[in-house]
Fold this sequence. Notes:
With 324 residues, chain A is α/β, with parallel strands linked by helices. The first copy, chain A, has two domains: 3-89, MurE/MurF, N-terminal domain (Udp-n-acetylmuramoylalanyl-d-glutamate--2,6- Diaminopimelate Ligase, Chain: A, domain 1, 3-Layer(aba) Sandwich); 104-288, Hexapeptide repeat proteins (UDP N-Acetylglucosamine Acyltransferase, domain 1, 3 Solenoid).
Amino acid sequence: MRQTSLQISELTGGQLSGPENIVLESVASLKNAAASDLSYAEPRFQANALQSNAGCILVSAVPVEASANRSFIVVRNPKLAFAQAATVLLWKPQSGTPIHSTAVIDPSVTIGEGTRVGAGCVLGQNVKVGTGCVLYPRVVLYPNVEIGDNVIIHAGAVIGADGFGFVKDGDRYVKFPQIGTVIIEDDVEIGANTCIDRGSLETTVIRRGTKIDNLVQIAHNVEIGEHTVIAAQTGISGSSTVGPRSIIGGQVGIGEHARLDPQTILGGQAGVLNGKRVRGGEILWGTPARPLKEFLEQQAHLSRLPNWIDEIKRKLGLRGKLDS
Amino acid sequence: MRQTSLQISELTGGQLSGPENIVLESVASLKNAAASDLSYAEPRFQANALQSNAGCILVSAVPVEASANRSFIVVRNPKLAFAQAATVLLWKPQSGTPIHSTAVIDPSVTIGEGTRVGAGCVLGQNVKVGTGCVLYPRVVLYPNVEIGDNVIIHAGAVIGADGFGFVKDGDRYVKFPQIGTVIIEDDVEIGANTCIDRGSLETTVIRRGTKIDNLVQIAHNVEIGEHTVIAAQTGISGSSTVGPRSIIGGQVGIGEHARLDPQTILGGQAGVLNGKRVRGGEILWGTPARPLKEFLEQQAHLSRLPNWIDEIKRKLGLRGKLDS
Amino acid sequence: MRQTSLQISELTGGQLSGPENIVLESVASLKNAAASDLSYAEPRFQANALQSNAGCILVSAVPVEASANRSFIVVRNPKLAFAQAATVLLWKPQSGTPIHSTAVIDPSVTIGEGTRVGAGCVLGQNVKVGTGCVLYPRVVLYPNVEIGDNVIIHAGAVIGADGFGFVKDGDRYVKFPQIGTVIIEDDVEIGANTCIDRGSLETTVIRRGTKIDNLVQIAHNVEIGEHTVIAAQTGISGSSTVGPRSIIGGQVGIGEHARLDPQTILGGQAGVLNGKRVRGGEILWGTPARPLKEFLEQQAHLSRLPNWIDEIKRKLGLRGKLDS
Lengths: 324, 324, 324
């Protein structure tokens, strides 16, 4: 939705420097921007703003004089202001019917106003989807799954498949009942081909505002707190809880019945053991996950170990090299 | 399918204590159960059984007197008995046609009695599916794939895609023929968005009773033995074999041409090298995978290393701190 | 497409030994081959060629006399010659319409000659697909994605979903615009359920000849160089570049803004940190990734550490065992 530079400055609460009437139609990086684009410069890349052809640039301080065909808007956080302005600039009235004709939707399903359901989606019995959601093509919602408002689910995601629960009977495995459901709260985004299993006897819950990347696995009975981000290919095992405002890197593995405090931060590929309680507020890394400082110190010692052992052995007159 | 407390006691071979005629219609956890639910208490949670509203509870010992509206059934393994009873209680006659009208099924496909094929499934040429299977929406079976009886395949799983095999020709890669197939034996369950590749010149085989979680990758020519469980996001590379009755954790990586003995147990995120033979019967962890006790001992030493090196150096009068 | 032994020798530039007129209709392993099959023997398995029933065998040296019903063809690289010959032998004229009737294709899409689009594929606005491509069932191409010639995309792959980019606004996350696209160059193969995200403001690019396995995650703005192979379940984070002719093992994790030189080789489960520059030409392993030799040496030291510490402590008269 076309905006003037003045409108963008009002929208972002910024200080306009230069013409008020520059017409902006889209957004772009500094490098790719044309005269009708809004762009932004992070403080350390401010110099690049001078070379850009953008019609208007969000900055934290004005780098040069604005000109007749370029404005700057000074804001506290240019990247955030850019993301907020982009929401308005890129908004388009949706054309066509909101529910694609190839979507398979059980008659019992309820779908809120403004929600779009893409080609080939499958929504099972008693599924509820709120208002303003986007389901991209081929999303599967198993029966009874409940989706809040303004939720985005990318192609191929599967919500509500059976949890992975079996009971051993001699050599064989007997399926444990998987009759719980999944609740996805408002403003959640779920990546392509991600899987979120239904609860076994309880409910799997993804709380408000949480963002989940592609190919993530969330097992039965898990609860993910509000405003948490989970990067691609991470797996969270059954009955674990992740506290609100946590940041979980890619390919992290979290065991069963683990309990992560609010604001837990886990580096990529970290591993949390079954039943573990994890403290929030600091960065953890490695398997088993430990404080980042500790992990890096151990890695450093490990890499120096051969030399130290050799030195000690020479001093002690011990025979042989370490690797002998 | 509704059952009385007496019927459940007969079904599970347990000892009924309390009324025989309590009518049970579903199952639930102790916490969520209502009067028409069957529940169970594991020995350590036996006390919780007292607070439950369940009409009938499977226990390993009766915690209190049964009452006019609650029975206990004493069994050796309450969780197993609960899973077995749930199969009967939750059984429903399937309504509607078993093959969804949007499934795309080649005319050469054979499908056994009682098998259900969900919306948007695609079954290629000469695919065979046995009796009593459930294919959830959007499962893809490439040509020639063979599925046994009572197999469950969750949404988005892809069985029989080409293996990842190429031969180098200078800088370029030439595709190696991927013309084998996949055989899935009886009673296997396969998770959502899991991929099982066809053999290149041989066959990829998943033996009877094996359970595979979501987002698992099984490469060409792999053979997985009977009654094995494989947790989410694990990857098994080409031509490896996993022995029967193994337990493979989540995010485990197994290299090419590895050979895992029967009853191999691999902890989450463990890594097995190409060509490696892995002994069964004990828990292995880490990359490269080693016995759990060894792995934990090494981790413990690693964490104490800085202090020990410092102490040794002080004693020896060696200059500097380890990290200097 | 049926070939004689003579034709195969000409096709592969090999030296024919034995009858010229053996008719070959397919390919098989030495073990499975019948009289109408072409097979091959790698040098170390040459002895196995004697037991095979194959009508013609590609070898690096003739192991025995050819006979009236079996030829050998001597080539420098039997496996490569086999793969090349298989391309011709297994070629079939495609029957049926190339675009499956259940594919959902926006009217603005352009599709090149000879390209096949499987059941349930979804191709969004302005998608371009070149000639000779195969899209297996249920591939999703988001709007504006561009696919070159002779590209193979396996079932369930999702190309062009939004990148995982958000800007923090207090506790909440605001979506960063994801309006770039994806370009897949010629001769690329993409595995089942793999996800390649669109660029945020730039373009995600997969260069010519690169092969990507199943369940791989490629984030926004990534560029993968030519003739690179990426094994299953690997994840490459936003704005990273992988140099041409690289070999990336399975379950590898690469952080954001990393830069991998040409011919980088990463072992399975290796981890590359955010912003890291990785040198090519040698094998790297572990997290953080380091040269293989170094990694193995450190692992060896780690496993011997308990014994060495004990020995040193005895010598020094230090009290207690290491683990005391």
